[in-house]
Prior knowledge:
The chain is mainly β and about 60 residues long. Helix content is about 0%, strand content about 20%.
Amino acid sequence: MAKKKPDVIFSDVHCIDCAHCYDHHEMSVKGVLFMGRCPYSEWAVFLFHDYCNHFKMKKA
C-alpha cells in the first residue's frame, strides 16, 4: 500500500532568518531562544516557524 505524502512542505528558512525579526526572548530549557518580535505581527512569533509574506533575508 502506498504511503500518503504530507501536505505541508517544510522550508529551509524560518522567522529567525528574517531581517525584520528582533527582540529574541523566551529561552527554552536547552538554552535556545525560541520567541521573537516582528513588526508585521501583533504578538510574539515562534522563531522556528515558516516565514511569512514580508520575509527578507538577513545580510550575513
